[in-house]
């Protein structure tokens, strides 16, 4: 179990950094909202970076499979049902998000048709909205496991609950009220709860590791 936690302390920051690069930085560089021509020109002018972004997105989702499997391994003794639920939600989210990378590749084959490029981008965005639902759902059983296992302070478990609410609210707003920026901004703030968990996991570590160090 201790070795698994140590592996997770390495994988978590790698996952977070690559994920932020793929899901936040790359779209900010290439996508110009409601401007297919500018978006297409951005891709043409820096195609290598765009392709690196696709690879980063794929790696992010692959880690989103590996990390929950490792978490299941350490938490299944705490509560097998919640651990299985956590794993199931993550394994549903990963292929949905991975499917979005197909549209990224399709963009590269239609650069002479800006409207089609933007259409592919929108399809990818919709796939990520669907994945966001499960990115939220998996944090609820993970939060319960964090609290029940006593590996983390209780507050960390509630931060995971807040993150789950944030992802679900974000998805709901994008589906039902796509123009309600204020609600979307609130949901984005709540997702920081997951970041707090990751930072605590990596910097402070689960109590089982700290107890070993003290001994």
TrEMBL record:
Coiled-coil region(s): none
Transmembrane segments: 12-32, 52-72, 84-103, 123-143, 155-177, 183-203
InterPro entries for this protein: DUF4386
Keywords annotated in UniProt: Membrane, Transmembrane, Transmembrane helix
Name of this protein: DUF4386 domain-containing protein
Organism this protein belongs to: Tenacibaculum platacis
